[in-house]
């Protein structure tokens, strides 16, 4: 019962952070595997099912607020869907302990990249990259990495998009939309792999509702929050958690 309460609270908080900034989803598989000792397939099944909900709800709210470029998001997502299919197969071929290390390294590097990226006024005036092949390749690579490691999607994609000249709020909207197409093949693949674990399917509806509530609240209030401060908090927490799991 204690574990269930912790999982519900975590999904509420992480969902809220995803709705606000697009990042923090990777904390779900880290908590499931690192602190609850869940099997990798069960952990990733629950995580990517949650990312599907956050992607859908977040995208709708960001689109309504005018912060979702569907053209760029569509091209990126096409590449991510193919990459995610490959990422699931890669994960299922690699030992669980190795995948945990990969996940922690991805989180560590993502946290560092978010922390080091400067939000300068000039960033919004920089001409964004508009190459279709580039976004297809970017989607495929990030989709494969995220599906294999459990990093979700936005935590890698969002910082890259801002560096390419896309405004921060729009980058969050695009990365949330993109996460839908990473989550669909990933959730399906890991749910099939965890089919023998009945606990996963009992937990799924409760955790998805909690996650959805958090995402909806976060994305509705995203424009009211100082995103720079929140990103830095999440980045520092990510680096700290990853270092603890890697070195202690």
Shape: globular
Largest sheet: none
Number of helices: 10
Whole-angstrom Rg: 16 Å
The N- to C-terminal Cα distance equals: 28 Å
Class from secondary-structure proportions: mainly alpha
Query: What are the low-pLDDT stretches, counting only 5+ consecutive residues below 50?
Result: none
Share of helical residues: over 70%
Bin the strand percentage. Answer: under 5%
Global mean pLDDT? 87
User: What is the succession of H and E elements?
Assistant: HHHHHHHHHH
DSSP strand tally: 0
Descriptive notes:
The protein is mainly alpha-helical and 248 residues long. 79% of the residues lie in helices and 0% in strands. The chain has ten helices and no strands. The longest helix is centred in the C-terminal third of the chain and has 26 residues. The chain is globular. The model has no long low-confidence stretch (mean pLDDT 87).
């Amino acid at each position: 019962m204690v574990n269930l309460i912790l999982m519900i609270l975590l999904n509420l908080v992480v969902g809220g952070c995803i709705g606000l900034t697009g990042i923090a989803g990777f904390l779900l598989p880290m908590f499931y595997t690192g602190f609850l000792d869940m099997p990798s397939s069960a952990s990733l099944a629950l995580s990517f099912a949650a990312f599907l909900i956050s992607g859908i709800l977040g995208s709708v709210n960001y689109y309504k607020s005018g912060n979702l470029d569907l053209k760029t998001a569509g091209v990126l997502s096409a590449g991510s869907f193919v990459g995610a299919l490959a990422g699931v197969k890669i994960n299922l071929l690699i030992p669980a302990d190795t995948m945990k290390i990969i996940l922690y390294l991805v989180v560590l590097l993502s946290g560092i990249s978010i922390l080091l990226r400067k939000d300068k006024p000039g960033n919004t005036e920089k001409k964004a990259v508009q190459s279709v092949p580039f976004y297809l390749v970017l989607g495929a690579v990030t989709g494969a990495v995220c599906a294999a490691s459990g990093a979700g999607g936005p935590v890698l994609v969002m910082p890259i998009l801002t560096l390419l000249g896309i405004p921060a709020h729009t980058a969050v909207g695009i990365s949330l939309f993109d996460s839908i197409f990473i989550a669909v093949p990933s959730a399906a693949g890991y749910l099939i792999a965890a089919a023998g674990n009945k606990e996963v399917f009992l937990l799924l509806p409760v955790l998805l509702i909690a996650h959805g509530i958090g995402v909806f609240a976060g994305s509705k209030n995203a424009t009211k929050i100082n995103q720079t401060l929140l990103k830095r908090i999440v980045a520092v927490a990510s680096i700290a958690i990853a270092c603890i799991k890697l070195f202690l």
